[in-house]
Amino acid sequence: MDMGLYGKTALVTGSTKGIGKAIAIELAKEGVHLLINGRDHEEVERTVREIKSAYPATSPQNAAADLTDRGQREALFQKYPHVDILVNNIGIYKIMQYGDIDDEVWNNYFRTNFLTADGLSRFYLPAMLKKNEGRIIFIASEEAVMPSGLMPQYGVTKSMLLSLAKSLSKLTKGTEVTVNTLMPGPTLSEKVLQIIEGAYPEEELSFSEKEKRFMAANLPQSELQRFIKPMEIGRLAVFLCSPYSSAFKGSPIRMDGGWCRPFFKCVRREECRFRLGFEMFL
Ligand SMILES: NC(=O)c1ccc[n+]([C@@H]2O[C@H](COP(=O)([O-])OP(=O)(O)OC[C@H]3O[C@@H](n4cnc5c(N)ncnc54)[C@H](OP(=O)(O)O)[C@@H]3O)[C@@H](O)[C@H]2O)c1
């Protein structure tokens, strides 16, 4: 199916690996010109060459930069002042005990997972609104709506993205621009792949046997009982970037393999009135 994206330009942050790379590849299949980003200039260049040789009708460009650095973000804006699609994908994550998360850790997560996406959106959104066309996608996580408690510093910053996306979506009222958040569950990025491959070293098991055993032991609540393939997220992102998704406005979109039951629950208006007794505010 032609997704109506041929000839568009997209910046996918953190697109040399994992989910970001899969999104970039799926967009390139639709004829989108990619701005490939990562901190390692050589790795970005390799990814650009890989995409160019697989999808020669497109013109991928090297947009290497450490996007947590404001100066490097501004240099990127000078070089690439226009994009039709912005996918805010970069994000750091690590299992941590709450007691070990000091101000420095909070600052690092806040800067990387939130401020970077905010800075890029603030720059690219106004031109999209002027043109009455454009897409911004935030890659959050199931941790945004159901923190597991294993990485509080991560879950908080992912919840912040949900809130920011909804606020930005309000600015798109009456336009064809959309701002949405995609919340993947456990996904088979290169990092996760290595962990599974290295698991159960004492036994002769195929990758899928290891994966099944790992899921049953560590993620029993998953209804999928396998990791999500980055390409599956890439295909969903293509739909969200396409003109067919205009009715998704400020939506939190879960692709988590049935992993999570959200703790942010919508209650009916009447229930709110009854519970709070502040009818005038509702
Ligand atoms: N994997 C999962 O199970 C999962 C689940 C839910 C949500 N997510 C979210 O999905 C997103 C991608 O995750 P992933 O697992 O695919 O990550 P990943 O494999 O670690 O890839 C991260 C990408 O971002 C780049 N990057 C990191 N810091 C950067 C910076 N400061 N400036 C520019 N580029 C930077 C990396 O390249 P360099 O290191 O070379 O810079 C790489 O290309 C994250 O936001 C994550 O929170 C992941």
Gist?
By secondary structure, this protein is of the alpha/beta class.
Explained architecture:
By secondary structure, the chain is α/β, with parallel strands linked by helices. It has 2 domains: 9-187 and 228-278, 3-Layer(aba) Sandwich (Rossmann fold), CATH 3.40.50; 189-227, no CATH class. It is built from 9 helices and 7 strands, in the order βαβαβαβαβαβαααβα. It has helices spanning 18-29, 41-54, 70-79, 103-131, 152-171, 190-197, 207-218, 230-241, 269-276; strands at residues 9-12, 33-36, 61-62, 85-88, 135-139, 178-184, 252-255. The radius of gyration is 20 Å and the shape is globular. The model is unreliable at 274-282 (pLDDT under 50). The structure holds NADP nicotinamide-adenine-dinucleotide phosphate. NADP nicotinamide-adenine-dinucleotide phosphate is lined by residues 13-20, 37-40, 43, 66-68, 89-91, 93, 112, 139, 141, 184, 186-187, 189-192.
Largest β-sheet summary: 7 strands, parallel
The CATH architecture category of the largest domain equals 3-Layer(aba) Sandwich
Q: How many structural units, i.e. domains?
A: 2
End-to-end gap: 44 Å
Q: pLDDT under 50 segments (min length 5)?
A: 274-282
What is the β-strand count?
Answer: 7
Helical fraction: 40-55%
H/E series: EHEHEHEHEHEHHHEH
What would the average pLDDT be, to the nearest integer?
93
Instruction: Tell me which ligands are bound.
Output: NADP nicotinamide-adenine-dinucleotide phosphate
CATH fold assignment of the largest domain: Rossmann fold
* Global Rg: 20 Å
From the spread of the alpha carbons, the general shape counts as globular
- Classify the beta-strand content into a percent band: 5-15%
CATH class of the largest domain: Alpha Beta
Number of helices: 9
The CATH superfamily of the largest domain turns out to be: NAD(P)-binding Rossmann-like Domain
Structural class: alpha/beta
What is the strand arrangement across the widest sheet?
3-2-1-4-5-6-7
Family: Belongs to the short-chain dehydrogenases/reductases (SDR) family.
Protein name: SDR family oxidoreductase
Organism: Paenibacillus faecis
